[in-house]
Specification:
There is one protein chain. The protein is built from 9 helices and 2 strands. With 274 residues, it is an all-alpha fold. It has 2 domains: 104 residues, no CATH class; 117 residues, no CATH class. A two-stranded antiparallel ribbon has the order 1-2.
Length: 274
């Protein structure tokens, strides 16, 4: 039988391995942040004194950190856990929330309108409360569920400190974000006092330098899921026998610090006076 020079062996026709969901979402979030960054020099419009595409870019970066963390955790779990219905369903719900939020953020930026605290019409109020609010709840609960799944995966490649850091970090992110973001969503903006137009703010973050601002506490609550696993991983490598207890103590200190920054904002004091 004659074999054509461009013929391909049957074995090479096997389907390519699928890219895990959280890796794909991380790549998409990074791509969206880059697109927003590249478009900003060509866009003169502003919302509340900042470029219209700055908020979508910051959200995309935050999503990249979120899904990148989940993708790293996923690599250490057993195949059975990664292919389980709980893991897959949670991932799909979080993906849907991410896509809906980013679509609304980018759409509003393109229109030159605020995506948050925009109750100007019944439609805007619905989108803010249902799409943004509902999406945030789905993401927050998803983080907690994934932390619980990782903790229960006995065959996972997790040291005692890292396992505790993932569980407590994800749990802290879920609970603290529910409290702080819940308070944030009830107002008409992130400030708890008077922030005059043109008043100084922290560069890039936009946090007020003259009055209370709930966003620093919100930032800390979101990133407990990165900080505490790193603490646990560090202790696994330096003092594995004490890694679990140290990570628990670190989680308590982190939660107290976050709540202290939250209380400071509620009292009307800026995190950094500018």
């Amino acid at each position: 039988m004659i074999s054509l020079p461009f013929s391909t062996p049957t074995a090479s026709l096997a389907p390519a391995a699928r890219v895990p969901l959280f890796q794909a979402l991380t790549a998409l979030a990074l791509a969206l942040s880059l697109l927003c960054l590249l478009w900003m020099p060509f866009e003169a419009r502003q919302i509340a004194g900042v470029p219209v595409f700055l908020k979508p870019m910051k959200f995309a970066i935050s999503f990249a950190a979120l899904f990148g963390t989940l993708a790293l955790v996923e690599t250490r779990l057993t195949v059975r856990t990664r292919q389980g219905w709980a893991w897959r369903l949670t991932g799909l719900v979080m993906a849907a929330a991410f896509l809906a939020e980013m679509a609304w953020l980018i759409w509003q930026a393109a229109r030159g309108e605020a995506s948050h605290f925009n109750l100007s019409t019944p439609f805007h109020a619905f989108m803010y409360r249902s799409v943004m609010g509902g999406g945030a709840l789905a993401l927050v609960f998803g983080i907690g569920i994934i932390g619980w799944i990782a903790r229960r995966d006995e065959g996972a490649r997790l040291g005692p400190g890292l396992r505790e850091g993932i569980w407590l970090g994800f749990l802290a992110s879920s609970i603290l974000t529910l409290v702080i973001a819940g308070k944030l969503s009830t107002g008409t903006g992130p400030f708890t006092g008077i922030h005059p137009p043109g008043a100084p703010v922290l560069p890039f973050f936009g946090w007020s330098g003259v009055t209370g601002d709930l966003r620093p506490a919100h930032f800390l609550s979101l990133h407990a899921m990165q900080v505490l696993p790193l603490v646990g991983l560090w202790r696994d490598r330096t003092s594995p026998a004490r890694a679990r207890g140290f990570t628990r103590l670190a989680a308590l200190v982190y939660a107290v610090l976050t709540l202290a920054v939250f209380a400071q904002a509620l009292a009307g004091w800026p995190l950094i006076v500018l």
